[in-house]
Structure formats: C-alpha cells, structure tokens
C-alpha cells in the first residue's frame, strides 16, 4: 500500500497517513512489525511499519479526530488500562509508549484476556495482561506500581468511582486520567448529558480538574471522553465497595 506518513502535529507517537485515495488516516508505528491486531491495514515506509487506527473501533482514536487537546499517553509513559478487552486500543497505546513505556491491561472477561494474551501481549514486551475486576484494585495491587496515566473504558454503572478508586491506589500526584464514559451502561433512563455531568461531579469530588470533555459521535453514540488531572490525593488507601462474597 503506497502512502505518505507524517508525525501528528500535536501528539508524539501518533501519525497521519495519506493513503492512495488522498484521505488522511490516524496511525501508530507498529511495535510488532508484520502483525495486525484487529484486521487494521499495515503501511510500510522504508524501515518503519504503521498501523492504521480505526476511530470506529477505538474511542481514543475517535477522541483525537474530534479535537482532543491533551494526550497524556506519550513515549515512555506507564499506563494502567482498565477494560483492555482484546487489545484494540491498548495495542495502539503500546505503540505510542514504545519500548520505554509499559501498559498494565486489566480485563475481567476470560475470553477477552485470552485473545489479549495470545494475539497481542505475547508479541509486545511492554504489555502485561491482568485478569481481574477493576472494581477491586486491591486484587492486583502487587502487580501494578505507580503510573502516569489511567485510561478507563469499562461497562459498569459507576465508571468514574471505579476510576477514582484505582487512581487512589496507583496514579502519581499530578497524573492524568482518561475516562471513556458509556452513558447507556450507567443509566439508560437518563439523557447522556446528565450522565456525563454526574460522572464529572464524581471526578471533581475525587480531587480532579476536568481538562476537557469530548463527545464521540459519530464514532460512538452516547459516549464521551473525559480528560482530567489529579490535583489532590486520597491518603486513605483503597476504597472499595464490597462485592458479592467480599466482606
């Protein structure tokens, strides 16, 4: 595939690829050359290979195309990724942070974690798959150290609260969070805008300054990306609601 590649003007580790029909597509440099993750196109120029990044498959790509101003995920970053699924977006995060960074991938579904391990992580030295429930960060505390960024994309009713609890345990002071809010997973009876406001309030009460809110239509309906920075830190350790069988 013939294409021209140039660095994204705002985000290190992200690229713009002009393809044969003249359109420009997002891409990341492939950390595992010769391998795709979800059927995305591979583009080779010289010694480098790039993976086209589909915004209809990745909320992070959609946020960038919708005008994201702050991407705290950068080369060398340590990332905690909650809800990594089979690795579509997590693999692009792996590309961006490069060999000097690391992404801890928490996923609850056994089938998804198997796909993540065998199709993605075993070909990339900067990814660690963790089979765990993001509602219980204590369960993986020994596996995850302090991180620069927490990226959260989970289908749970209390997405912001779960993120704040993880951040209390793992996020560095001054670190950043990115929350992909799935309004219909939180409350199908309310308008998405009401849900976003509620999640923002939880983050603000948790000590975060909201930097921007990106609505992801047309790439994802009733979804928004919230970017925030930690201003204060909880000093009381883990705060988890007891789950079934947990007391």
Structure description:
With 247 residues, the protein is an alpha/beta fold. The protein is built from six helices and twelve strands. The chain has helices spanning 59-65, 88-97, 110-119, 159-170, 183-186, 192-205; strands spanning 4-7, 15-18, 24-29, 42-45, 48-52, 78-82, 102-107, 127-131, 147-152, 171-182, 208-215, 223-230. Strand 4 (42-45) and strand 5 (48-52) form a beta hairpin. The radius of gyration is 18 Å and the shape is globular. It starts with a strand and ends in a 17-residue tail after the last strand. 45% of the residues are buried.
Q: Please summarize the sheet with the most strands.
A: 7 strands, mixed
Give the averaged pLDDT, no decimals.
Answer: 90
The level of helicity is 10-25%
Number of helices: 6
Distance between the termini: 56 Å
Strand content: 25-35%
Assembly form of the protein = single chain
CATH superfamily of the largest domain: Vaccinia Virus protein VP39
CATH topology descriptor of the largest domain: Rossmann fold
Shape type? globular
* Radius of gyration based on Cα positions: 18 Å
Number of strands: 12
List keywords for this structure.
2 domains, disordered C terminus, Phosphorylase Kinase, domain 1, 6 helices, globular, alpha/beta, Rossmann fold, 30% strand, 7-stranded mixed β-sheet, 247 residues
